[in-house]
Design goal:
Elements (H helix, E strand, L loop, with lengths): L3 E8 L6 H13 L4 E6 L14 H12 L5 E3 L2 H4 L6 H11 L3 E8 L12 H7 L1 E6 L5 H15 L3 E5 L7 H9 L10 H9 L10
Parallel strand pairs: 1-2, 1-4, 2-3, 4-5, 5-6
Length: about 210
Amino acid sequence: MKKKKIGLMGGTFNPVHYGHLLIAENAYEQFELDEVIFMPTGSSPHKDSRQILDAEHRMEMLRLATADNPHFTCSDYEISRQGVSYTHLTIRAFHDQKKDCGLYFIMGADSLAYFDTWRCPDEISRLSVILAAVRDGLNMEELLPIREQLWHRYGTKVGFINTPNFSVSSNIIRQRVMSHHSIRYLVPDSVGEYIRENQIYQNRPGN
């Protein structure tokens, strides 16, 4: 029986935008995944939680953004659990729940350079395949030696997702909202409407 292939895509998603969705769709297609699960971060070890929107809003925007895609789903695992959201703990939990599935962790290729500073990179490598999104002019000649080093150090399996450049970030979207500029074509219409209706990001200095 063919093993089900599940992509896990974490992030603050503050807010989710088309760049996130493009990466997930390309990962799904290029690596023949059966499902991509979006998981908003609860308490991130890398970001100031005071500058992150409430988890309920981020989760609802994700649900709206993925509602029309049958192979996209959302999980509140990281925002529901207590403590800091470390990747190795999340992957271990999903591995224990879905022992008959292969796990593929989706992230930006720029993160490969400091992957060995993460908590338990050996466990992440043992329980999942890394799918790294190559975008924003990243140099493959620099990425290939890093992939080789991680393979020899941790047995890390890395696949590269080729995805169109989409020069937008959640930070840019937040700034545009605060400046009363349009975010149309940067986020799904349903997400833009949710931001307007709930007056999100309009008065959040430092975000």
